[in-house]
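TA notes, week 10

Several of you asked for a full example with nothing omitted. So below is the full record: structure tokens for the whole chain, then the designed sequence directly under it. When grading your own attempts, check the secondary structure regions first.
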């Protein structure tokens, strides 16, 4: 069913608003996936706070024009599904990577975490990015551990002096 010009403008505005708020974008070819598989992908994406859209390539090119994902427009060809993640940059990549493990028909074409286009080979690296909570806990560990080591060292020195006395 062909979209009317008003509907196309609404789609472009909606996707443009999503792209403006998104931290990362992943474009993947979904040729060969069944409706049930796409429904499962959408469900997993919702759980991960990822927005999934299937949009005509000409409309998505217009939607990302003027956004940080504008460089990706050249990679949009074929039947593509687009995943936008919010603050957690790796969420969209994680969802697509995990889904592609069991569904070979989903093939990631390109991705971006804001500046420039990354090829599909970078999917694993982006998917491996820690979530905000994981990064915060790692930072706190790195900050706390030197102090803890110093305290353990001082206790060990104290115990050595007590044994020697």
């Amino acid at each position: 069913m062909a979209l009317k010009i008003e509907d196309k403008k609404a789609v472009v505005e909606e996707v443009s608003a999503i792209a403006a708020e998104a931290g990362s974008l992943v474009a993947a070819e979904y040729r060969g996936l069944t409706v049930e598989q796409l429904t499962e992908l959408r469900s997993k994406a919702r759980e991960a706070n990822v927005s999934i859209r299937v949009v005509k390539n000409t409309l998505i090119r217009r939607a990302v024009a003027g956004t940080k994902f504008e460089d990706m427009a050249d990679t949009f060809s074929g039947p593509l599904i687009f995943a936008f993640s919010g603050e957690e940059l790796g969420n969209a990549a994680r969802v697509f990577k995990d889904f592609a493990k069991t569904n070979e028909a989903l093939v990631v074409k390109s991705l971006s975490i804001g500046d420039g286009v990354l090829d599909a080979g970078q999917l694993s690296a982006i998917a491996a990015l820690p979530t905000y909570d994981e990064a915060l806990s790692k930072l706190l560990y790195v900050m706390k551990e030197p102090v803890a080591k110093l305290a353990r060292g001082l206790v060990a020195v104290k115990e050595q002096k007590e044994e020697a006395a």
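Helices lie at 5-21, 35-47, 57-64, 91-102, 123-127, 132-164. Use that as a sanity check on your answer.
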